[in-house]
Amino acid sequence: MPRQPRFWFPGAVLHVVQRGNNRTGVFADDADRRFYLRCLADAATAHGVAIHAYVLMTNHIHLLVSPETSESMPRTMQSLGRRYVRWFNHFHDRTGTLWEGRYKSALVDSDAYLIACMRYIEANPVRAGMVAASGEFAWSSYRANGHGHADSLVTQHSVYASLGSTPASRQAHYRRIFGSALDEDEQRTIRDATRFEWVIGSATFCRTVQSVAGRRTERLPMGPRRRAGD
Q: Domains in the chain, please, with CATH?
């Protein structure tokens, strides 16, 4: 089956996920994580990608990004992958692929879902039972977005910036929003969209994107269940 074209248009926000091959770990220690973030920063700067949120899990990563052009994200991930895999294989005495095929990306309706996607990404370590609170996890953007810690990788999106007139008020507002967990429907919407590379957004937004992109933006409705004996 041919790959579907990536979603992109000027101002587009993407939720990107990349997993380790066969769900194996892609970071063995903190040195790996530091080098990965350095590679990510260099590649994103070189190819025009603004990063609004991120998390480095044990065997996968999440990014919330705004690419400048349709080629910005593919080139960033290609450059990042080549450089980081060479490092990882060299220092851990291994060969071969590290990532599970190409990365997945879902287009995000920033007005309706940007903050929800940020929360989904930054709360990942809590849902996985790695920490009790997102602020305890060193390898995500939460400390920057929620507490103002210096993080040169993070660029504020206009929707986040609208949470308050000062950095302190934005951070406080974000922490209040973060205080309540995403409901199951929101989590399922975001998880399924990234898995199948659909759109995370309102019905109106999905219809608009579909008319521009020329491809379906969401899963087809499920048909009625067959009854036993039918």
A: 13-202 (3.30.70.1290)
Q: What is the pLDDT along the chain (230 residues), one digit of tens a residue?
A: 445 667 777 889 999 999 999 989 999 999 999 999 999 999 999 999 999 999 999 999 999 999 999 999 999 999 999 999 999 999 999 999 999 988 999 999 999 999 999 999 999 999 999 999 999 999 999 999 999 999 999 999 999 999 999 999 999 999 999 988 899 999 999 999 999 888 998 888 888 877 776 666 665 554 444 444 43
Read off the tokens for 29. 């220690």
pTM above 0.85, yes or no: yes
Helices (DSSP H) in the chain: which residue ranges? 30-47, 72-91, 110-122, 124-127, 142-147, 158-161, 167-178, 184-196, 203-213
